[in-house]
Design brief:
Helices cover 6% and strands 38% of the residues. The protein is mainly β and 177 residues long.
Length: 177
């Protein structure tokens, strides 16, 4: 989701690396356990390299991966919108306590803070995008209460629609990044 990571100046510190090329695809077809307003009987997603399917309960989210400091710093900033079933999964090599800001965001987000074991450790819902031309220094900062390995950003309202809570476990397909 489009957020600037705050460590320094709206960027994050992490392992160096280049952006992941988007080419090879993986087919994933999995039936959800329970029907939800946003889920279908069978989910078939064509995942591009650099994407993973994240299950929030019975709700599948096609998440773009943000693994490098550069990808995490850019996040979803400056995008006009995001499809309802999409998100961005920020991946860290170690447990961390990251701070995010809504720098350059144009739409509201829900944050799902996930531990290394896949358990949800914190949730922030309905974080609004700042008004246009707001100085980054005036944009609110968001951080989890506990260390995390993953941060999933989705459109505001998705957490409520999925009916998830702290302590629930998310699933990654084809596997945890």
């Amino acid at each position: 989701m489009a957020l600037c990571l705050v460590l320094g100046s709206c960027g994050d510190q992490g392992e160096p690396g280049a952006a992941t090329p988007r080419s090879a695809a993986t087919d994933v077809s999995t039936p959800p356990r329970v029907a939800s307003p946003l889920a279908t009987q069978t989910v078939t997603a064509r995942l591009e390299e650099g994407e993973v399917l994240v299950w929030l309960g019975d709700l599948p989210i096609r998440a773009e991966l943000a693994r490098t400091p550069e990808e995490r710093a850019q996040g979803l900033s400056d995008r006009p919108s995001m499809p309802e079933d999409a998100g961005m999964l920020f991946v860290y090599a170690e447990d961390t306590l990251p701070t995010y800001c809504m720098c350059g965001m144009r739409f509201a987000l829900d944050f799902v803070w996930i531990g290394a074991d896949g358990a949800i450790v914190d949730i922030d819902e309905g974080i609004p995008a700042p008004p246009p031309d707001t100085s980054d220094s005036l944009v609110a900062r968001i951080r989890p209460d506990s260390e995390v390995r993953y941060v999933l950003e989705v459109n505001a309202g998705v957490v409520d629609a999925a009916g998830i809570a702290v302590g629930d476990v998310v699933r990654f397909e084809p596997r945890a990044p």
